[in-house]
Amino acid sequence: MCKRGPGSFPALFVSHGAPTFALEPGTTGPALGRWAQALPERPRAVVVMSPHWMARGPAVMTGATPATWHDFGGFPEPLYRLNYPAPGAPALADHVLALLAAAALGGQGDAHRPFDHGAWVPLMHLFPEADVPVVQVALPVGWGAREVFALGQALAPLRRDGVLVLGTGSMTHNLGEFFGGAREAAPYVVEFSRWVEDAVVRNNREALLDWPRRAPHAHRAHPTDDHFLPLFFTLGAAGWGGDTVPGVDWISREVMYGMLAMDAFAVAGA
Questions:
Q1: What is the dihedral of CA 65, 70, 71, 77, to 10 degrees?
Q2: DSSP state of 38
Q3: 170: Cβ–Cβ under 8 A, 6 or more apart, which residues?
Q4: Are 11 and 166 a contacting pair, CB within 8 Å?
Q5: CB under 8 Å to 113, separation ≥6 — which residues?
Q6: What dihedral angle (degrees, nearest 10) is formed by the CA atoms of 234, 237, 243, 246?
Q7: Between the CA atoms of 227, 211, 231 and 160, what dihedral angle is there, to the nearest 10 degrees?
Q8: Which of 3, 94, 193, 233 can pair with 49 through a Cys bridge, CB separation 3.0 to 4.6 Å?
Q9: What's the distance, Cα to Cα, between the start and end of the chain in Å?
Q10: Which letter does DSSP use for residue 145 in this model?
Q11: DSSP state of 115
């Protein structure tokens, strides 16, 4: 397990899977719970980016009591009864907006934004008591890997203040190839995921930022890039990609439905 640096939390990326991940945790859900329980101390808050909140520019949840939004349809009824009543953190949200402004990225507050499933589903596995305050950050529309990486870099100081920075998305996300009851991972899913893992562990910044051209099966793994971009939010916040190779804890390599890689990893960073 990667160790927390002096006075700082690691940054975390989690593949949040289908909404049913809340009820069908596979091996990834328990692994996330064990990782959170093994932290030397609990974070004072979580700042999370999910691909299910996209805005025209940087935006930040500022409400004190965000609702749980069931932003999906056609799933089993018990899923709609789940609630994740974690408090918001308006003062922290203001600090996030100040950090974005200092980095010349801008940003708007949104006092009415609820938690979408890209945020609350993985948080149910990490902090099931919903007792850690959470602030959600939007994924800006049209931004690429480098821009999202820079957004994460702007929020890196939060980690020194006891905040866990979390990006959620999916290591692979081609829903057109949903294989239902498939037991074996599609070969391209494994090849893409392990290429990403190698780039992260080796600190290969330029290769990973140029993933659409360099990663094997990049377009097949991600016909659109929205579920992959929060990975760069995590890496930017971790201080990854500099001269020092960071400690990396690969928490899960599970594949669900043959095509949905559920990789999760933490980066100790700088």
A1: 180
A2: T
A3: 15, 16, 17, 227, 228, 260, 261, 262
A4: yes
A5: 53, 59, 61, 62, 63, 66, 136
A6: -60
A7: -160
A8: 233
A9: 16
A10: H
A11: B
**DSSP summary character for residue 10:** P
What is the identity of the amino acid at 137? V
Alpha helices in 138-259 (DSSP H): 145-154, 187-201, 205-209, 211-214, 218-221, 230-238
* CB 98, CB 45: distance < 8 Å: no
Looking at residue 68, its amino acid is T
C-alpha to C-alpha distance for 238 and 51, rounded to whole angstroms: 19
Amino acid symbol at 239: G
pLDDT truncated to tens, each residue of the chain (270 aa)?
A: 344 444 589 999 999 999 999 999 999 999 999 999 999 999 999 999 999 999 999 999 999 999 999 999 999 999 999 999 999 999 999 999 999 999 999 999 999 999 999 999 999 999 999 999 999 999 999 999 999 999 999 999 999 999 999 999 999 999 888 776 677 899 999 999 999 999 999 999 999 999 999 999 999 999 999 999 999 999 999 999 988 878 999 999 999 999 999 999 999 966
Q: Kindly state the tokens that stand for 132.
A: 């850690």
Backbone angle region of 189, left / alpha / beta, with phi > 0 → left and psi within -120 to 50 → alpha = alpha
Q: Could you give all domains of the chain from N- to C-terminal order, each with its CATH number?
A: 12-267 (3.40.830.10)
Q: Are 247 and 3 in contact (CB under 8 A)?
A: yes
42 phi/psi in degrees, rounded to 5: -75, 145
φ/ψ (deg, to 5) at 7: 75, 15
Q: Are strands 264-267 and 11-15 parallel, antiparallel or unpaired?
A: antiparallel
* Contact criterion met (CB below 8 Å) for 60 and 137: yes
